[in-house]
From TrEMBL:
GO terms for biological process: translation. InterPro entries: Ribosomal_uL5, Ribosomal_uL5_bac-type, Ribosomal_uL5_C, Ribosomal_uL5_dom_sf, Ribosomal_uL5_N. Residues 225-273 have a biased composition (Acidic residues). Residues 201-273 are annotated as: Disordered. The lineage of its organism: unclassified sequences, metagenomes, ecological metagenomes. Signal peptide: none annotated. This is Unannotated protein. Keywords: Ribonucleoprotein, Ribosomal protein. Residues 201-224 have a biased composition (Basic and acidic residues). Residues 90-182 form the Large ribosomal subunit protein uL5 C-terminal domain. One of its GO terms (molecular function) is structural constituent of ribosome.
């Protein structure tokens, strides 16, 4: 007889409690419209692995214990000399959880790991504007799967919860009904004001760039006009000089002709005498 699969507690809670509550709260016409958890991505930085490959193995083992899944190694896409980083070096580890594994991890995160954070006073409701939520964990030892005595060093985690919610308010309601310990609720007016502020800043930046471009084009046009004026003045000056030279040459020729005529007249007068 095949073993029966144990139902995931948080997934069962979503179907029986959370989804109906979301439908009632937001007035969805279908259960399929209710937001749900699509995936959870867990990232761990391992920049020190470029100096010691054993650190990469240790970090990968710890992340596998935390998530129950073998992590993927993220490699550097380009070289950065200041950080002594070359393209292709390992810089991080990542695990993407979906389906039952995502619900199991979220359950352990909320019910076991987060309460073990020192001086914990709640999580800020900082969503990304599209109903997704990211948690930064400073110490991997808050997860009970990690043996504190066997840890080589403290490492942080980034946990990104991707939902199908269309707004932050819906995403907040989904996670809050699951039991996520938020300390505040996102205010739609504040979110709208923040978005308007970002849009205004972007518009101002665009206007400044356009103004700078226009000023640059104006300066280039002015420089070209000055050059054309200088060329015209130079041409006029050359024409004036040529005209003056022609006048002087003409005057000299006339003077020479007069002198020649006078010289021719003097012998004739002497002969008459």
């Amino acid at each position: 007889m095949p073993a029966t699969k144990t139902p995931v507690r948080l997934k069962t809670r979503y179907v029986e409690e959370v989804r109906p509550a979301l439908v009632e709260q937001f007035g969805y016409t279908s259960l399929m419209q209710a937001p749900k958890v699509q995936k959870i991505t867990v990232n761990m930085g391992v920049g020190e692995a470029k100096q010691d490959s054993k650190m990469l193995e240790a970090a990968a083992g710890q992340l596998a214990q935390i998530t129950g899944q073998t992590p993927n190694v993220r490699l550097a896409r380009k070289s950065i000399a200041n950080f002594k980083l070359r393209e292709g070096m390992p810089v991080g580890l990542a695990v993407t959880l979906r389906g039952d594994r995502a619900y199991e991890f979220l359950d352990r995160l909320m019910s076991i790991a987060i309460p073990r954070i020192r001086d914990f006073r709640g999580l800020p409701a900082n969503f990304d504007g599209r109903g997704n939520y990211t948690i930064g964990v400073r110490e991997q030892i808050i997860f009970p799967e990690i043996d504190y005595d066997a840890v080589d060093q403290i490492r942080g985690l980034d946990i990104a919860i991707t939902t199908s919610a269309a707004t932050d308010e819906e995403g907040y309601a989904l996670l809050a009904l699951f039991g996520m310990p938020f300390i505040n609720k996102p205010n739609p007016e504040e979110v709208a004001a923040e978005e308007a502020k970002k849009a205004e800043a972007a518009a101002e930046e665009k206007a400044a760039l356009e103004q700078a471009k226009a000023e640059q084009e104006g300066e280039q046009a002015a420089d070209k006009t000055d050059e054309d004026s200088a060329d015209d003045e130079s041409a006029d000056g050359e024409a004036s000089d040529e005209a003056a030279e022609e006048v002087e040459e003409g005057a000299a020729d006339e003077a020479a002709e007069e002198a020649a005529d006078e010289a021719a007249d003097e012998p004739a007068e002497e002969t008459d005498q």
